[in-house]
Amino acid sequence: FRYYLSLPPIIRAYGTACLAVTTVCSLQLLHPAYIALIYEDVFYRLQVWRLFTSFFFLGKFSINFGIRLLMIARYGVQLEQATFDRRTADFLWMMIFGGLTLLVLSAIPFLWNPFLGISLVFMLLYVWSREFPNAQINMYGLVTFKAFYLPWTMLALDVIFGSPILPDLLGIIAGHLYYFLTVLHPLSTGRTYLKTPRWVQKLVRRYRIGAPAQVNSRAAAQPEQQPGTGTAFRGRSYRLSD
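Below the sequence we write its predicted structure tokens.
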């Protein structure tokens, strides 16, 4: 229980929701069809909840479900605690942006997927792999490789074991789009187009979600070493060389 309370707020809430919804569906207390992303039901029957509930189902109890939950607990937690330390609003916006991107992608007929939970987890995994590209990953004690290749390795394993790869691909696309707009493009052009909206920052402050943002007086007094860079990718530009 102490470990659970020590988890950062956004990932703790998302992981709990995924576990709760998946458990309810696995126990047949709720049929997954009632929470699936079906745009006809959303627009013609006003079942708006489907836009949200589709992100909380990770499949019925199985080894794959356990792996996805562990990915949230490890990579999502490390992202929120390290890369987004004291930047809860930025992390929440990343999750919201990822969700919106996946909803748009799923509106394309050949990319439609009824459940986007696995895709959102893969987005977290992809962003983590770009933030910690040189971390060493030991896969089942058989092979060791850099974290940069982890999303593609997990996708390859899904292909080998016959799992659908569309959810993985959607998550990788959403993760790369976020990373491109907040890191790669601003670094090359000096312009940041994707910033955390004020309403997200106000929401976090109002409900006191996470630790308050830390103000670095030395950083405030001195200019950035990378001219033209935005706060969305401060201190992360060195990773582009990997």
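The chain has a mean pLDDT of 87.
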